Give the backbone structure.
Amino acid sequence: MSTSGPREEYGKLLEEAREKVKSGEGRARVLVGTATCGVSAGALKIKEDFINEIQSKGLDADVVEVGCMGHCYAEPLAVIAKPGFPPVCYGYLDDGLVHRLVEDFLAGDDPSYEYALAALERNDVFPTFEDFPRGVYEEKLILENCGYIDAYDLDSYIARDGYGALAKALSGEPRAVLEEVKAANLRGRGGAGFPAGIKWEASLNGGDSEKYVICNADEGDPGAFMDRSILESDPHLVIEGMILCAYAIGAEKGYLYIRAEYPRAVGHVQQAIDRAREKGLLGTSILGTDFNFDLEIFQGSGAFVCGEATALVSSMEGKMGMPESRPPRLASHGLRGKPTILNNVKTFAYVPFIINRGADWFKGIGTEESPGTAVFSLVGKVNSTGLVEVPMGTTLRQLIFEVGDGLRDGKEFKAVQIGGPSGGCLPESALDVPIDFDSLHEAGAIMGSGGLVVMDENDCMVAVARYFLEFTQHESCGKCTFCRLGTKHMLDILNDICRGEGDPETLNLLKELAEDVRDGSLCNLGRTAPNPVLTTLKYFMDEYKAHIEEGCCPARVCRDLILFYIEPPRCSKLCNVCVGSCPTEAIFTRDDGLKEIDQEKCVKCNNCLKACPPEYNAVIKLSPPVLPPEKEKKAK
Amino acid sequence: MSEYVKIVIDGTEVKARRGEKLLWAALENDIYIPHLCAIREEARPNASCRLCFVEVEGTQDPVPSCTRTVEDGMVVKTRSPRVDRLVKTGFELLLSDHDLKCRQCPANRNCALQTIAKKRGLKLKQKRFKPVARNYEIDDSPEEFAFNRNRCVLCGQCVFADRRENETGVIGFAGRGINRVVTTFQDLPLAESICRKCKVCVDVCPVGALYYKKSPE
Ligand SMILES: Cc1cc2nc3c(=O)[nH]c(=O)nc-3n(C[C@H](O)[C@H](O)[C@H](O)COP(=O)(O)O)c2cc1C
């Protein structure tokens, strides 16, 4: 053994990093959230604005890009950390507000709390995010650094003890890492919840010396963006987790399979790999030991099915991204025939915590069978959309009404879609289901990769099922009979129902077919594609029946079953707004000066309904699409 | 260890080579299980036609017998209400986009779909699903044979035979989902492709999608 072990090597890095971070602490810093969520809300422009304002005032302050803090509803976001003040987070930024903050807070000493969302440290003046109702329920582990550290700067990760778990692991046996992960009962966060430790152990059995570690960052579910945010905000956490896995199983090569539609994630991860390599955390002789491991990014082309383990590996081998029958499993027969460990981004992200703090600590969070936290992208009709992390076992009700702050515009909750296209729609009666792998499965949904879409009274559950089926049918690779043709016929039937066509037999057929596609398909794309249909049939049968028996879409969504109607008593002679809003000139002014819609010309675009001023609210949707009787009388 | 294992299929004890897949063990013992895509020489089963379901005692759900390796003492049922239901649906799904003009088909009376229907008492018509029209043009560019993709069940037998015979495969799968087809590189007519007219693909087609223009004597 050389005199300088991994801990000593790491100690040097840690000292350097702490010093560097400390040297910046005397200065004011502006942290702008520039993960994809921030960027799409204009964060790059906000960053420029800060830089320009700061320069024009000749101030001494750094502007730093950080990732996503999870408060996506309030993007663009920035944190201002000024010595002498608690760091404060501001949301809904625009150029005016940036000007004001620079002038009042950076140049002056007024933190402008009236514009602040929260402080980031406890203080006597202003509440922190933990004081939010959601703070009670949230417990941030793998999101802890997200939005707080400079995603481009390895030192800011190390300064928060980053790569400490690696140094600890490297000073012990690989087996110890494996045993810790096994004891922690860390379950895969990519959907199925398979215990990671058991998978890792299986890769040891083949006796093959060449092995691979792959991180699944394909994240193809509509509405899901947790993995992207983590990679953009804290890439080293995932990298450290992968190195730990490689050490445990004896792999020398690893890949991050990231979809090409995530250019920022790809960029962040690539520079993180480069920085880690420069500091001897990747490559040969990691932290001075004889352990070698390197990472490469493989960009996936965005087929949903390529997130499936065997299809992902096929696509990396240059073949069509199509699933294969299992066994053999990847752990014994994976990439290029070698033992391969594939885990989700989040699964890897937990590993450094488990190594640092121990399996018992990890098992103290969450439930017995599903220890740890769950990360969701909470979207849809809730007030506070964003990225949330709660302990397993939190109920859906707490997540939606406390963390998500309830439904928008006081609307009534109807359903929550959980688990993406492979998941299910659960009704109000299922809201007290605790969030863990097994309870959700029992309720007919799945944890999935963590997309959670909240729906209200204006969402039609038949149309929702149709939407997801359209997605899976489109993403079916076509290899096996049930998925290729079964999803096609399910979609056809749903399309019919959305048009009000069908009879009770149609619903039986849909259910039977859905069950057979579930039981008969080759891979989990087909096997789970029926979930949105089966759960909506189970919990929202009334809506299906209304469509086919009464030609009525109760949520007034399905176009063929609605018409737009201007209620004469509410319409005003003095207003012409709807007429101008109509793209097909379907709205005309009647002899009495009120407006009316020519149903022949109407394309149901919804413009008039939106345009009609709130004081009248005269445009309504009717389903079934029949005009009220007095209207008919008059027309004669 | 003996080279053989004993398993029970439908109440009859049979011998099967160790390591063999259930499907082949059954067929070798004259026990019929419907199948289209299975290829014995392939190391990894295709498992794509989803017709060879059986029940294995101790396994909760029906499994495709092409994917399950025999084990000593295994107890297997080739028929059960769940197996029959899956096979029926799978078969009807395949019929739903198959060109069902049997009388005009050169494979008539020598067609794997007809065999399945006969052995399992299924109809060669189905009413549950709306027919999916594929409307592919027939490729009759080769002199002796032609390819009608509207009859193709995507079993992959032709692709496998072609790969075995020709160093560079001539045909392969292309397209995704409902648009999955067997075709040549760049979708060229066979006569314009690198096809050497060896016809191994025609010989293995179970449903008359690849067929001789004149039936061989
Ligand atoms: C159609 C389909 C898409 C999938 N997409 C993803 C994905 O985007 N990310 C992911 O981690 N797992 C995905 N999975 C699950 C993977 O097959 C695999 O179970 C997972 O990556 C294993 O990692 P884990 O044990 O850490 O969850 C998908 C599965 C299917 C069937």
Notes: The pocket of flavin mononucleotide is lined by residues A 188-192, 194, 216, 218-220, 304-305, 307-309, 342-344, 347, 449, 523-525 (CB under 6 Å).
